[in-house]
């Protein structure tokens, strides 16, 4: 469990929140409670994808991420604009570690602007900083 001081830093930095295993788990639970965990799941999948070294594995993961989060009517479709979706699809013709960067940045910004302020106001977070 993080110290209240550590948890307080998360208010201003989604990056710090996501780097902390407890912070990530707390944020994910919070998003699940409001039925919007697809964003954090997509972000985590992208982080994992970027660490993939084998081109074969990378292609497999890229396809899975695309089918789960990007394609229209995907089971956990993330909310990205048409342009970002088109760029991502083009990047997947030859998957590389940066294939999902634009989409991941958009989703990070969305969580930062939208989900983080709600998380910070939640009782769950309020308990952490006591």
Give me the CATH fold name of the largest domain: Regulator of G-protein Signalling 4, domain 2
| CATH domain class name of the largest domain | Mainly Alpha
Order of helices and strands: HHHHHHHH
* Residues in helix, %: over 70%
Averaged pLDDT, please?
95
Structural class: mainly alpha
**Number of beta-strand segments:** 0
Total DSSP helices: 8
> Can you tell me the number of structural domains?
2
Largest sheet: none
CATH architecture of the largest domain: Orthogonal Bundle
First and last CA, distance: 12 Å
Per CATH, the superfamily of the largest domain is Regulator of G-protein Signalling 4, domain 2
Which band does the percent of strand residues land in? under 5%
Can you tell me the overall shape?
elongated
Question: What is Rg?
Answer: 16 Å
Please summarize what this structure is:
The chain has 130 residues and is mainly alpha-helical.
Question: What does it look like?
Answer:
The structure is a single chain. The chain is an all-alpha fold and 130 residues long. The chain folds into two domains: 4-34 and 115-129, Regulator of G-protein Signalling 4, domain 1 (Orthogonal Bundle), CATH 1.10.196; 37-112, Regulator of G-protein Signalling 4, domain 2 (Orthogonal Bundle). Helices cover 70% and strands 0% of the residues. It is built from eight helices and no strands. 25% of the residues are buried. One of its GO terms (biological process) is negative regulation of signal transduction. Residues 13-129 form the RGS domain. Pfam families: RGS.
């Amino acid at each position: 469990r993080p110290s209240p001081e550590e948890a307080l830093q998360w208010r201003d930095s989604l990056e710090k929140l996501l780097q902390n295993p407890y912070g990530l788990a707390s944020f994910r639970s919070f998003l699940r409670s409001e039925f919007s965990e697809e964003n954090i799941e997509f972000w985590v999948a992208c982080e994992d994808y970027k660490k993939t070294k084998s081109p074969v594995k990378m292609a497999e993961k890229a396809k899975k991420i695309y089918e789960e989060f990007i394609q229209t009517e995907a089971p956990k479709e993330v909310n990205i604009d048409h342009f970002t979706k088109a760029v991502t699809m083009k990047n997947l013709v030859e998957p590389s570690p940066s294939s999902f960067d634009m989409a991941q940045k958009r989703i990070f910004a969305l969580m930062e602007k939208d989900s983080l302020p709600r998380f910070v106001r939640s009782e769950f977070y309020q308990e952490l900083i006591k």
